[in-house]
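Quick one, tokens below:
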């Protein structure tokens, strides 16, 4: 089986360039198309689950990461501070989005009636990974994360976590893969030098909460000490690459610490101020690792709904160019990703489309152009009888439709 680096090169998904830097892949048009389709689907899953999407900047004052605990507990994975051009406080690239989402919560006073508050974002985060561990899309320094945080009353946490597990399962099925394993990542020695924040009793509650949710869902899992985040335990959804290496993709985390550090509150039904629980969750994980994994799972033949090019139109001769362009334009208006292939013999163009794993190739010869028909070839090798152009586009649009969220 080919790994995603070779597939990504052959299918023109991403391009690493030394002038940009290691671990900073450039997404080429094909890769951007894949991401756009997947991100749109995941946003819809989240929207229907009650998430409100935001945008937040990829940098913040150093003070915010001191407050969140990242600077004390995660500094080795962060890029160094940048000088403020006005001579003010140092700024830092964010290693995660959670402090920014805590600021979203803090934007106004909150009532128990607003909880659970679900916030989602596709945002950039940056990790100072050592060059020796960087690898294609699976280990990078710039991560575009499908992130989200749920702020809830403690008694709401179990239902929220169960709903996230269900969303993860649904989305991964739609993308065409299943998790390799579920890992309950626990704290190690709490006596370690500042590795974990928060009281031991809160860690016990959080670990039990996650364990009970996994058991109730009937999900097989294993436990691993020392793999928790510094602010709380987590469920890591594990995948395996073609070389057999296991790595984390999606995640669900329970955090008692940051709501306290940022002074997050809500007013309960009795008028008292209470502290919300913060649940970190990601359905798709980082887009880099997700797309790399999908390339390997499908060996480049991505499902039609997120294939970078869904339809190639191949006119037999120059006389059919206008008919080919009309068909491609009609496909574009239907929301399909279509291209016209002109250069080389018809056989060469069909072979190139097959090599690029394009799901559908529409051949238009003199007879098809005269009758407003096309001859469709499917990625698997089948060839359909000639059909009207509108019928062919309707067939492709149905087959390539985004799954219902």
């Amino acid at each position: 089986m080919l790994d995603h680096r070779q597939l990504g090169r052959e299918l023109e998904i991403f391009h690493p360039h030394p002038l940009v830097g290691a671990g900073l892949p450039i997404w080429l048009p094909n890769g951007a198309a894949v991401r756009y389709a997947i991100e749109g689907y995941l946003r819809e899953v989240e929207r229907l689950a009650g998430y409100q999407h935001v945008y937040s900047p990829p940098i913040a004052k150093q003070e915010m990461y001191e407050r969140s605990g990242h600077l004390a507990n995660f500094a080795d994975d962060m890029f160094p501070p940048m000088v403020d051009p006005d001579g003010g406080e140092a700024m830092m690239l964010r290693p995660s989005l959670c402090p920014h989402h805590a600021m979203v919560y803090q934007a106004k006073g909150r009532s128990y009636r607003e909880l659970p508050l679900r916030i989602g974002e596709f945002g950039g985060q940056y990790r100072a990974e050592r060059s020796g561990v960087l690898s294609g899309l699976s280990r990078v320094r710039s991560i575009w994360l499908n992130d989200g945080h749920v702020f809830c009353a403690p008694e709401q946490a179990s239902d929220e976590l169960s709903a996230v597990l269900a969303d993860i399962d649904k989305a991964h099925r739609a993308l065409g893969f299943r998790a390799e394993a579920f890992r309950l990542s626990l704290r190690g020695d709490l006596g370690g030098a500042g590795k974990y924040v928060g009281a031991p009793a809160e860690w016990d509650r959080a670990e039990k909460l996650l364990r009970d949710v996994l058991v109730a869902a009937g999900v097989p899992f294993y436990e691993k000490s020392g793999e928790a985040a510094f602010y709380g335990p987590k469920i890591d959804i594990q995948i395996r690459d073609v070389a057999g290496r296991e790595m984390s993709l999606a995640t669900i985390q329970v955090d008692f610490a940051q709501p306290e550090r940022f002074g997050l509150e809500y007013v309960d039904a009795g008028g008292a101020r209470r502290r919300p629980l913060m649940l970190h969750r990601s359905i798709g994980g980082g887009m880099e690792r997700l797309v790399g994994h999908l390339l390997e799972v499908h060996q480049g033949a991505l499902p039609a709904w997120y294939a970078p090019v869904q339809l190639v139109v191949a006119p037999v001769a120059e006389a059919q160019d206008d008919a080919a362009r009309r068909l491609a334009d009609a496909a574009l208006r239907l929301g399909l990703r279509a291209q016209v292939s002109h250069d080389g013999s018809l056989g060469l163009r069909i072979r190139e489309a097959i090599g690029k794993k394009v799901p559908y190739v529409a051949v238009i010869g003199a007879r098809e152009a005269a009758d407003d028909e096309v001859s469709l070839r499917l990625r698997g090798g089948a060839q359909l009888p000639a059909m009207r152009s509108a019928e062919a586009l309707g067939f492709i649009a149905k087959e390539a439709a985004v799954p219902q969220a």
